[in-house]
Each structure stands twice: as C-alpha cells, then as structure tokens.
C-alpha cells in the first residue's frame, strides 16, 4: 500500500490494535486524532503525503490511546540531569497534552540548569520544571505516582531513573530523537533518530490534533515559543534542519512570541562560561582536524559551559570536530562525574557511533554516551574516586589520570597510527 495515498486511505489503515467504542470507556472530554487539526490544508499536505509524517500520525494515535488508558493518574516526566531547550519544551508540551486526559504530570530533573539560555527560557516562560536533587528525594512520597515518562532521553543521563525504578513506578512512555541506548520496556515508545529534535516530534503531535494551540491562551503561546527554541537549538539554528523540521517551525510560527524568543536568545554568557572557553583554547590538542580539550574541574552549576566550549572550538579553522570534557563536581554531595561534549561539521562522522566506540558500556550494558547528527555527549561516573579534593596534589593527580585516559581513548579513533600530538 502506498503511504502517499489519499486521506480516505489513511482513515481505513489500521493504526493500532483494534478497539471499538465499547472497549474504551471515555468519561472525559478528550480529543480524537481522526482528522488531524491544522494538517489537512494546502500548505501542509506533505504531512500526510510522506512516509515519515505518516509515521508521526500513527504515533500520535498510539499516544492518544496510551493516555486514554491512564486517565486521572499522576505521572513524573523525567528529564536528563542537565536538560536542554529541546527536553524542557517537549516535556512542557507533553504535560499540556496529558492535562486533557486529567493526567497530572510533574517535570523533574536531578541536575541543574546552568546554560544561560536554559535559565532564561524557564524564567521568562514560567516553564514548570523542578529540580529534584538526590538528597531531597527522602522527603518525596513516590507512591503518589502511577507512572513515569522519559522525554529527550532514555534514562542513561538521569540519576532519577534508578530512584523511580526502585520505587516500582512503571515506565509509560519514551519519546526521544537520539539513537537507541539499550532495551526499553515501555508501554509507548517513539524513538526516531532520523528526526533532528524531540521538539519536532512533539510539534507533529500538535499538528495531528493531540492539542489545539490557541493564540489567546498565554500558556500555549509560551509553550510554542519554547518548542521553537528547542527545535532551533537542536538543529543548529535550522542549519541542520530537514523538511519535517521546517514544516514544524512553520506551524509553530503561527503561535510563537518572537520578542520572547529573542529575549531568551540574547541571554549573556557568564564569566565562568567564558573562563571555561578560555581553558579549552589553552589546553586543546589538534590532530587530524580533531580538537580535543580537557578543562579540569568545574562546579556542578557550570556543567553547561562544556557544550558551549565545544560549540566555540569547532569553529576554528581546519577543525571539523571538537571534544571538550571536564570533571564536574558537587561539593555538597561529593559527587563527581566526567562530562564531555562533541560537536562536528564532518558529514561522514556519526557522533553516536564515535562516542559509543570510544567509551563503550558500563557493567550493566549501558553506553556511557551517544549522540545525534553533528553533536554528542558522554558521562562517566567516577564512583569510588569521587571526592577527596581537599588535597590539591591528589586532585591534580586524579585529573591527570582521567585526562590521559580520555585522550587515549579518543586518539585511538582519531589517529590509529599514533602520530605525535602537537599543541593547537
């Protein structure tokens, strides 16, 4: 059957397992995704005419049925420890969609917001995300929640995953655009690595009618603005965007507050971020058009300086790929973790494959990192070696060991012939 068939064929194509009106007891006013709102128009016929967008329509219907089965419940939306605009905006959209089914969702993350644009996004839009630091979880009654959702991550970058699993909270949905990180047992899964941003996936849900945006509702306008920022951020200001991303951006432009978006984008870099960029320039080594820089120790709240430094380093002449990493530490919890970011302009380099091959998996089979088109990241817990940095000599020695090990693993792929390293 051709997927670019007329709308009438779409209506008869079985999207999910059979369910009759008698089987689904609908006692709340919820939207049905039969004729997608804002889709069957002249300018967006491609949404129904192309294979990828048909899949988006099918997934929207599956998500609707999943939400119907969890009416009146309370859920957690678990984000990566350091959520970016793509994750934050997509989680907010899910929360608004779920509200229509009388599902109360709380958006939570265990880390912090340190990127100036992320802080501005949350403050200026009132985006309802909460930090759940691990020490504060003792006061949380997790028995209140009947399910949790992973958005823009698959649990590998969240300290909260083990907490909710230990509380025996079932995984309801996973919605992400990164490559598959491992086996997932979830009621609903929509993982599309070919899509440039999770915000694009959620915009397609909106286009399919899961939520009808209204310009007269302030929360809808702010959420659409956040989605535009998330989409723009993960497509490198639309430079890496594909057709479906442009279609999504065009749809969001009807509701987006341009002045609000500009205010978010004009947030200034902090002095600490500039210091990390300076360190990455000073410490970088360049080999085969790869620039690799270790920046030493960073405060937990400055973690987002690492991807910003990678964004800057990759713009250097004759560099197509930049990797920046450091040891991020939380003094209150004596928590330390090696965090790194990769940025590339080389079309033939797959960040996901590169990082997985470089750093491998932990004892449970989970990869230490992964990626998407043009970007990737990795997080390596230091475990037993965490803390003890009151002794400056010990801290220096510890950094030198990790720095050398990370460089060795990266250079094994960058230059298999082991040519001499030269300073940038």
From TrEMBL:
Residue ranges occupied by any DDH domain in the UniProt entry: 77-230
Cross-referenced Pfam families: DHH (PF01368)
InterPro entries: DDH_dom (IPR001667), DHH_sf (IPR038763), Oligoribo/pAp-PDE_c-di-AMP_PDE (IPR051319)
Signal peptide: none
Transmembrane feature ranges: none
PANTHER family in the record: BIFUNCTIONAL OLIGORIBONUCLEASE AND PAP PHOSPHATASE NRNA (PTHR47618:SF1)
Protein's name in the database: Exopolyphosphatase-like protein
Natural source organism: Brunnivagina elsteri CCALA 953
